[in-house]
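> tool_call: predict_assembly(chains=two)
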Amino acid sequence: MIRVVLPHHLRTLARTSDEVEVDLNGTATIAAILDAIENKYPMLRGTIRDHVTRQRRPLVRFFACGEDISHESIDAPLPDRIADGTEPFFVMGAIAGG
Amino acid sequence: MSGIRVLVGTRKGAFILTSDAKRQDWKVDGPHFAGWEIYHMKGSPVNPDRIYASQTSGWFGQIIQRSDDGGKTWQTPGSTPEELKSEGPMPKGESNKFVYDGIAGTHMWYDGTQHPWEFKRVWHLEPALDSPDHVYAGVEDAALFESRDGGKSWNELSGLRQHDTGPRWQPGAGGMCLHTILIDPKNQKRMFVAISAAGAFRTDDGGKTWKPINKGLVSNFMPNPTAEVGHCVHRIAFHPSKPGTLFMQKHWDVMRSNDGGDSWTEVSGNLPTDFGFPIDVHAHEPETIYVVPIKSDSEHYPPDGKLRVFRSRTGGNEWEELTKGLPQKDCYVNVLRDAMSVDSAYPCGIYFGTTGGQVYASADSGDSWNPIVRDLPAVLSVEVQTLK
């Protein structure tokens, strides 16, 4: 079980609480987590990564164990503490704008 | 008539204002989608309780919301378990998927170079006249999309974007947006759209092919002021009973066409300034039109700090200022292009919203005004439903 913290606007869109949980079949990676999130909450498709290019939207970032991993390979294994649910995977919106 | 419902899109959410037939006491409901930009909401003429909303964000992109109960509850279309079934590994969840048809191509950028077409947001939703599940979307970068399944999926009517003038279209200050969609009620294959800054276009075959209809427009900011395209049209409007008579608020100039857009003449007349954004037509008088003059394109506020609506009962040229109930000093708000609408009660009601968060209403065709609400976030759009 993977824990995921979504930004406020996506929580309200998906009508979820602060933290959501997803189950993965294979290795915990950014791509696997995003697939699982979009599978469970289809209304979030296109909001974290582009519908077509599948690229992370520019003002969205990913954090794991206190590190910004937005520019890491989305297929790289995530730290054990994310994979075993000890710590949540963070999807964050940039603090910018008004 | 049982009442009026005013759909207000703002920078930070949607609001629904309702009143009985007297239009004196209003209930304010919202914010819906708090914190999101709501560019536009509009109800279906076939089923007024079917309302579409464009919810958008620079962070998280475009969302389409739909209500089937007059705005009490909302859903992203295609979200129920049954609707999400898919043959592939991923469920269908494509209500916010706007993908240009074929090769997106390029248009002119601010510096004169070519720039790729990039989808940014939905500016305007126009429910069709034949079914509540049929709706059009005008988007930035300018294109027209259509949904025939209640907003679950969208397809581009790409004949417009692929018009051979496309590489000469360019963004205005607000982006290159398709912001106006008019459907001829007498011939639904005829539609008019307007794009900033390309101009107005007409289709007579349901959106397959399009014709620029900008003859007579003069835009002095362009190298060729009378070019076929490149004009910053802010809004066009018609009365449903006379769809061949079009009115236009251009970046500068108020214009009129008597031939379905084939030619235009200026009708700015005695307006204090002919810059502005919205233009609308009285519900029962096809030659009575309304504009809100704005000082200039570099000063987006009313002249002299006076918020005035101007009405022409002659289809242009002769204008009277309407000020009763509107602030006549120290007012420096703007009224955006989709932020004016009319009801079809008697007398006709006129409504507009400001970037200062006020929504003003007139229940007497503009003779007097009252604020329904004063302190919303900046208003992006106002649509009115007259409920039977």
